[in-house]
From TrEMBL:
<dbReference type="Pfam" id="PF13649">
    <property type="entry name" value="Methyltransf_25"/>
</dbReference>
<keyword id="KW-0830">Ubiquinone</keyword>
<dbReference type="GO" id="GO:0032259">
    <property type="term" value="P:methylation"/>
</dbReference>
<dbReference type="InterPro" id="IPR041698">
    <property type="entry name" value="Methyltransf_25"/>
</dbReference>
<keyword id="KW-0489">Methyltransferase</keyword>
<protein>
    <submittedName>
        <fullName>Ubiquinone/menaquinone biosynthesis C-methylase UbiE</fullName>
    </submittedName>
</protein>
<dbReference type="GO" id="GO:0008168">
    <property type="term" value="F:methyltransferase activity"/>
</dbReference>
<keyword id="KW-0808">Transferase</keyword>
<feature type="domain" description="Methyltransferase">
    <location>
        <begin position="50"/>
        <end position="146"/>
    </location>
</feature>
<dbReference type="InterPro" id="IPR029063">
    <property type="entry name" value="SAM-dependent_MTases_sf"/>
</dbReference>
Length: 258
């Protein structure tokens, strides 16, 4: 998947990404509570210097900033990053955000206590070379004993069952109800799939359909653990949705002293 295609996918989604959530602000607060709890458990109360390197429109970054952490956002999509900064300001917080590829993070070495890569963003990287480049960069910008947080889909089960889509989600917006759903088309290798993201938006008594497409690598926990360990991280731990209430499995790992 070319870099420009992923960027276009999120540029196009940035305006309406919040419609994936029944209540975006409630979801922001909940996700910050869970992810912030993992940070506190490992690093203490803080506040901490946090990089959200796939910040999108700010779903995790804004919540963590409102909780008192000093958060910087970056995202491949300049449209999404700009919206994240604006949405934070509208809520009385500050979120410096820049357009940046997670494989080439434009930050100084050892700048952050925490690096977060959430919302199944890492699996947009479709080769081991690209995944390694991203993780090595995340390790570079973390301070010694810093914390890596990655959230991805539960791909072990998906690789076994190869689901063809996700059920519809209905969100209430000022313009009316928006219906969101996805279709997944698996590649012959059984590891990668093309995603079609549909939004049905009310429009003068009918519906307008928006379709966005991208490709993912369904990285299993064993595969991702291997890549994270190879990049120099230790204490790799998986946290299931059943254990912490987060909507995706969460990987945590530490950046040991050099």
């Amino acid at each position: 998947m070319p870099e420009s295609s992923v960027r276009d996918f999120y540029d196009d989604l940035a305006r309406d990404y919040h419609t994936m959530f029944r209540d975006w602000d409630v979801s922001m607060a909940h996700q910050a509570e869970v992810l912030g709890g993992l940070v506190r458990r490992t690093l203490g109360a803080g506040p901490h210097e946090v990089l959200d390197c796939s910040c999108g429109i700010g779903t995790q970054a804004i919540g963590l900033a409102l909780a008192g952490h000093r958060v910087v956002g970056s995202d491949l999509s300049p449209v999404a990053a700009a919206r994240a900064a604006a949405e934070a300001a509208a809520r009385g917080s500050r979120l410096p955000a820049a357009a940046a590829d997670m494989r080439r993070l434009p930050f100084k070495d050892t700048s952050f206590d925490v690096v977060l890569c959430a919302d199944n963003s890492l699996p947009h990287l479709l080769s081991g070379e690209d995944v390694r480049a991203a993780l090595v960069g995340m390790r570079r910008v973390l301070r010694d004993d810093g914390l890596l947080l990655i959230t991805v889909r539960a791909y072990d089960e998906m690789r076994r069952t190869r689901p063809t889509g996700a059920p519809p989600q209905v969100s209430q917006t000022p313009e009316g109800r928006v219906i969101t759903f996805q279709l997944w088309h698996w590649h012959e290798d059984g590891e990668r799939y093309d995603l079609e993201h549909f939004q049905l938006v009310p429009a003068e008594g009918t519906w307008r359909v928006r379709v966005h497409r991208s490709t993912y690598w369904a990285l299993t926990p064993a595969q991702l653990t291997g890549f994270v360990t190879e990049a120099g991280f230790t204490d790799v731990t998986w946290h299931s949705p059943a254990s912490n209430g987060y909507y995706q499995p969460v990987l945590t790992a530490r950046a040991p002293a050099a």
